[in-house]
């Protein structure tokens, strides 16, 4: 075969290959355009969703920040006026007691939680509201808010912390079995974002309240052995002394 013929053959093979690829592309053009359109649409939807989700989280964060400003405000007990004089007015942005400050904070927490319940800021606000209600002695209202956190956050950090709050309420109400079950489960949590040493002390206290001293001792011994350097280790040792035989 002559050189020119060989070149012509190679050229034809390349041309045929390119022609075949072109024809295949033409046949698939419609499908390719449809797929590209779908991908672009999904990208637009996702981008829009991400944008609006970020905007919602920002608005929720702003409401939570307003609540935290009140929660961190200075407490200035009122000064008793001198005889024949009126008490001086409280300084702006201060509160006469912790109770007054909590009561002022509560509606702000709930405003953030109710306006944006599914956001992280909203969930945090509801948890803070529940803790404040507990501090105010309103256990039934606190339980409702804790349960709202659990419903919204499930197995997340705030959801599990809210379960600790519900367990505390159960212990105070004498509902020891559900409280112990919750605390025992959370004490075995291996994720490392909960204070297991503190949970074990709380679990031991629940056992003691339920009259189960042996189980309480086992929980406390976990604290003294597994968390020997923990600040809760001293509390565990003191509690062990009070429940040991003959104490």
Keywords:
247 residues, disordered N terminus, Serine Threonine Protein Phosphatase 5, Tetratricopeptide repeat, mainly alpha, 9 helices
Structural features, described:
With 247 residues, this protein is mostly helical. The protein has a domain at 174-247: Tetratricopeptide repeat domain (Serine Threonine Protein Phosphatase 5, Tetratricopeptide repeat, Alpha Horseshoe), CATH 1.25.40. The protein has nine helices and no strands. The protein has helices at 3-71, 98-115, 120-135, 139-153, 157-172, 176-187, 196-209, 213-226, 232-243. It is globular, with a radius of gyration of 32 Å.
Helix/strand-derived category reads mainly alpha
Order of helices and strands: HHHHHHHHH
Unreliable stretches: 1-11
Helix content: over 70%
What is the fold's blueprint, element by element?
Layout: H1 3-71, H2 98-115, H3 120-135, H4 139-153, H5 157-172, H6 176-187, H7 196-209, H8 213-226, H9 232-243
Helix pairs in contact: 1-2, 1-3, 2-3, 3-4, 3-5, 4-5, 5-6, 6-7, 7-8, 7-9, 8-9
Summarize the structure.
The chain has helices spanning 3-71, 98-115, 120-135, 139-153, 157-172, 176-187, 196-209, 213-226, 232-243. It has 247 residues and is an all-alpha fold. The chain has a domain at 174-247: Alpha Horseshoe (Serine Threonine Protein Phosphatase 5, Tetratricopeptide repeat).
């Amino acid at each position: 075969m002559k050189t020119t013929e060989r070149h012509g053959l190679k050229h034809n093979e390349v041309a045929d290959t390119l022609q075949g690829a072109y024809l295949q592309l033409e046949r698939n053009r419609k499908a390719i355009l449809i797929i590209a359109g779908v991908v672009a649409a999904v990208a637009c939807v996702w981008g829009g969703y991400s944008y609006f989700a970020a905007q919602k989280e920002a608005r929720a964060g702003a409401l939570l920040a307003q609540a935290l400003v009140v929660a961190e405000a200075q407490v200035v007990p009122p000064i008793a006026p001198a005889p024949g004089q009126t008490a001086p007015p409280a300084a702006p942005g201060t509160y006469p007691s912790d109770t007054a400050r909590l009561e002022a904070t509560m509606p702000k927490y709930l405003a953030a939680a109710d306006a944006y319940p599914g956001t992280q800021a909203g969930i945090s606000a509801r948890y803070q509201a529940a803790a404040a209600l507990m501090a105010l002695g309103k256990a039934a209202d606190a339980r409702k808010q804790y349960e709202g956190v659990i419903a919204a956050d499930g197995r997340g950090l705030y959801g599990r912390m809210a379960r600790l709050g519900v367990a505390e309420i159960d212990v105070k109400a004498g509902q020891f079995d559900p409280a112990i079950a919750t605390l025992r489960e959370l004490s075995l949590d291996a994720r490392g974002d909960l204070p297991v040493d503190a949970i074990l002390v709380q679990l031991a206290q629940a056992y003691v309240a339920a009259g189960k001293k042996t189980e309480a001792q086992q929980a406390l011994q976990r604290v003294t052995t597994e968390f020997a350097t923990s600040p809760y280790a001293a509390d565990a040792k003191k509690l062990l002394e009070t429940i040991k035989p003959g104490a």
